[in-house]
Amino acid sequence: MQLAIYQVDAFAEQAFEGNPAAVIPLDYWLPDATLQAIAEENNLAETAFVLVEADSVAIRWFTPNCEVKLCGHATLAAAYVLFHYLNYAGEQIRFQSLSGELVVSRHGERFSLDFPVQPLQPCDAPEPLCLGLGVSPSQCFVGEDFLVVLDSEQQLASLQPQHDYLRQLPQRGVIVTAPAEDYDFVLRFFAPKAAIDEDSVTGSAFTQLAPYWASVLAKHTLSAKQISTRGGKVYCELRDQRVLISGCAVPYLSGHIVIDQRWL
Fold first, then answer.
1. Percent above pLDDT 70 for the chain
2. How far, in whole angstroms, is CA 86 from its chain's centroid?
3. Of residues 13, 17, 41, 46, which has the active-site annotation?
4. For the segment 121-143, what is each residue's pLDDT rounded down to a tens digit?
5. Measured distance CA(40)–CA(241) in Å, rounded
6. Catalytic (active site) residue 67
7. How far apart are the first and last CA of the chain?
8. Where does residue 88 rank: exposed (0-12), middle (13-18), buried (19+ CB within 10 A)?
9. 53-101: per-residue pLDDT in tens?
């Protein structure tokens, strides 16, 4: 069996920026073990599997070692593939996912993801978090991820995390953020528990970051940069309990993968 595969750099304005994701359209759902094996073989932060249905598109996301409930950059990549390669009609796609309905709209070269806000609660920074980051943050929150706020972009850029400690944490990952000069804020994201030591650009993190920075800066439209090695620019807008997360995408490859019959 052959399956089409596409790789797209999401939240990128040129090649080799942003976060690469694989996108694989399906005619029907393959066994979970097969989906996981494909994601492990791809060895990217995320592989998105999409199944076009009558009036919506089902989507699932897999890291190299687990399925996740929400992924922004792979959703943006999936929208790019549907619009540019699969001739999806209209300017809006309604994805059905483990996190409910996710709407992606196309505005020229930019795509906007309409995601639900994910609540945060203040917390004391657990010891593995402090040891893993090498800092004792004055502000720490917990939700889907831990959110740590630092004083400056320079402090954030200089972090050299110890992933063995971060892997002990119960949450999906660790978002570390700080104010910035050229943007409203900057961030880095670490998820060694999901086999991603540092993610290039993490769209879903903005469902937690946007409410925090909107409150701190008293503004609802925000610009940000994830200062990973590849880097990526993200624009977001807080609308009640939803966050619009916007960015561009650049195609990298298209081809086919071959699945042995025993995996079907």
1. 100
2. 22
3. 46
4. 999 999 999 999 999 898 999 99
5. 34
6. no
7. 9
8. middle
9. 887 899 999 999 999 998 999 999 999 999 999 999 888 999 999 989 9
